[in-house]
Design a protein that fits this description.
Blueprint: H1 5-8, H2 25-55, H3 62-84, H4 91-121, H5 125-155, E1 159-165, E2 171-176, H6 178-184, H7 188-191, H8 196-199, H9 202-218, E3 222-230, E4 233-245, E5 251-260, H10 262-311, H11 316-344, E6 352-354, H12 356-373, E7 377-382, E8 389-391, H13 393-416, E9 423-431, E10 436-443, H14 473-483, E11 487-496, E12 499-509, H15 515-522
Parallel strand pairs: 7-9
Antiparallel strand pairs: 1-2, 1-5, 3-4, 4-5, 6-8, 9-10, 10-12, 11-12
């Protein structure tokens, strides 16, 4: 039959534990003193463990310490009950406390063995010391590298800057070096941490942001030339952008370098202008003859009409025809003068979209008559559908004129050597596969020696006699085509019938243009 709680706690049938010790004071004092000291210690240890766990929130297994604290408190309680049962026979209560202690002990032991592999994996103090030492060495190395990088960044003559690419797509300046600050007049401290839109003027910000977006979206390095209006004035920079990606491949930074090429561009413009004037000089005789022909026509028809008027035999139809012819010839001269004036003018404008075939035909119109007087025939082939290119039309015309001039010199040299020569063939075609326009200028002037062919674009290199060439024409032409994003390549070719020559191939990438702008340009 189950016992009630009162019967279970009834101690009348037991005798206190002190009876077993015959109530000897010395033995009682020994047990009481020992159990009390052990109990107090057991109660103190959990307090220390709980205090430690509360202060050290970074412990990996703090709950184990709390489990140990429960176990130790239970053990301490059993010792206090051992003292109590010396005089009071509450053995049931003592047994319950021991049962609780047993469960706490079992749980603590199970947890301890379950955690044993992880506890053994924890580094020892010696390992921690070695790890800390290695970490300190790595920190020292990184600090040295950071110092070197900072010194490199701050002292390099090249203009450098770092742009942060934030997740929301905003571009923010992290730093610019002193060289860039000096070159642009921008305040490095004011720019740091500022979005590009806020740090720069709207015009400059719009120009650079389009490049940053191109670098971010493309994920590849890009380099380009840009003209910016800065606090120090209008400057031209050759800039390179390099994207920095995270582990997921997202561009998080853009490293940029820039070089002020304003003076170099100015010198290039001076060389181009000098080359233009030199080209006009070589064409002066032909243009003078080109002008004299319509002037002679005007004079003859005017004198004839005036004579008829004086003799009173002039008729209205013939007079009208004469005046129309005079107007036609004056318009022809005006067109030629305007073109020569435009060609010789210093070109300070920017790039534009234009049809390369127009520049080629303008160049042909300038020299065709003069070359025909020298028995040099210019033939043309054009299958272009009108793909626009980006650049300066007069500069492309200058390149073609220089190729004509070189072809003419080669033809005259061939004739001087007793060989038959006298044709320049020009072709303008579209390359649909590469979406580009190809211009070919071919002559039958004997070609170029293969040994010197790789050098013809070098500055001041010439195969002509002293005083007959500066060696800058092809070099300047190469620079013009390169700035347009194209290329120019020479090849010796066999024209058949024992004739040989050289073909210069100019390839220019076509640029897309909105239909409305294209209609306006045609208008």
């Amino acid at each position: 039959m189950a016992l009630g709680l009162d019967e279970l706690l009834d101690t009348s049938g037991f005798i206190p534990h002190g009876v077993c010790l015959l109530w000897r004071p010395d033995i009682l004092a020994l047990h009481v003193g020992s159990d009390i000291l052990i109990g107090l210690s057991y109660f103190s240890i959990p307090l220390a463990l709980i205090y430690f766990v509360q202060r050290r929130r970074d412990l990996a297994f703090g709950w184990v310490a709390q489990l140990f604290a429960l176990f130790i408190v239970a053990c301490g309680s059993t010792h206090f009950l051992s003292v109590w049962t010396l005089w009071s026979a509450d053995y049931v209560v003592e047994g319950v406390v021991k049962l609780i202690t047993a469960f706490a002990s079992l749980a603590t032991a199970a947890a301890l063995w379950w955690l044993m592999p992880r506890l053994l994996a924890l580094p020892s103090p010696a390992q921690l010391e070695r790890s800390n030492a290695a970490l300190e060495r790595e920190i020292a190395v990184r600090r040295q590298m950071e110092l070197r990088y900072s010194s490199f960044f701050n002292n390099l003559a090249e203009a450098l800057f770092i742009v942060e690419v934030r997740p929301d797509g905003q571009f923010v300046y992290e730093a610019i070096n002193p060289a860039l600050a000096r070159a642009t007049g921008l305040d490095a401290e004011r720019l740091r941490g500022q979005p590009v839109d806020d740090a720069l003027s709207p015009e400059v910000a719009s120009a650079v942001l389009s490049r940053y977006v191109q670098c971010r979206d493309g994920g590849d390095s890009i380099d380009y030339e840009e003209t910016l209006s800065l606090p120090v004035g209008e400057r031209v920079f050759h800039t390179m952008l390099v994207p920095v990606k995270d582990a997921d491949g997202r561009v998080i930074q853009i490293l940029g370098s820039g070089r002020d090429v304003t003076e170099r561009k100015r010198l290039q413009e001076e060389m181009v202008q000098t080359s233009k004037l030199a080209t006009l000089g070589t064409l002066a005789a032909g243009m003078a003859h080109e002008m004299s022909q319509p002037l002679n026509v005007i004079r003859l028809w005017t004198e004839n009409t005036l004579t008829r008027l004086r003799e009173g035999v002039a008729d209205a139809a013939r007079t009208e025809r004469a005046l129309s012819l005079v107007i036609e010839q004056t318009e022809r001269m005006a067109k030629l003068i305007d073109h020569v004036r435009a060609f010789g003018r210093r070109d300070g404008g920017g790039t534009q979209l234009f049809l390369p075939g127009d520049s080629v035909h303008n160049a042909i119109d300038l020299v065709r008559h003069q070359y025909s007087l020298e028995n040099i025939e210019i033939t043309t082939t054009s299958t272009t559908s009108g793909l626009p290119v980006s650049g300066r039309p007069l500069e492309l015309e200058q390149v073609v004129l220089n190729l004509f001039s070189n072809a003419r010199d080669a033809i005259n040299a061939q004739r001087a050597a007793g060989r038959t020569s006298g044709r320049i063939m020009v072709a303008v075609v579209d390359d649909i596969d590469t979406h580009s326009t190809v211009i070919q200028v071919t002559d039958d002037g004997g070609g170029i020696a293969p040994a010197v062919l790789p050098q013809i674009f070098d500055p001041f290199f010439t195969t002509k006699e002293v005083g007959k060439g500066s060696g800058l024409g092809l070099s300047i032409g190469y620079g013009i085509i390169d700035r347009m994003g194209g290329r120019i390549e020479p090849h010796n070719i066999d024209l058949g019938g024992g004739r040989r020559g050289v073909r210069f191939t100019i390839t220019l990438p076509s640029q897309p243009v909105p239909s409305r702008d294209w209609e306006l340009s045609h208008a």
